[in-house]
Design brief:
The chain contains one helix and eight strands; from the N terminus they run ββββββββα. The chain has 96 residues and is mainly β. The structure holds zinc ion (3 copies).
Length: 96
Amino acid sequence: MLIRCTHCGYEWAYKGKKIYYVTCPSCLLKVAISINKHDLKICLICKKLFEKLDSHHVSYKYNLVIGVCEKCHYKIHKTKLYELFKPIDKIHKASK
Ligand SMILES: [Zn+2]
Ligand SMILES: [Zn+2]
Ligand SMILES: [Zn+2]
């Protein structure tokens, strides 16, 4: 992805694995990736960036919602991989 340094304006293509911050090769200051042009969001589970995320309810009682990508959302409901993220109150019906 193309990153623009918010400090010095230097632009470069980033291929690393860090998600929230990278170090600008020009001024060596930290740059937040999440404030990119397209306002990408990070899936809480796979930590990949997406343009839009599904809202998954962890708790209806406390109205706790987490942002996850479509694939991980499916996995939460259809597999036992993410028991931690299953709704604690009642069974969540997928909206789609
Ligand atoms: Zn810079
Ligand atoms: Zn995901
Ligand atoms: Zn859900």
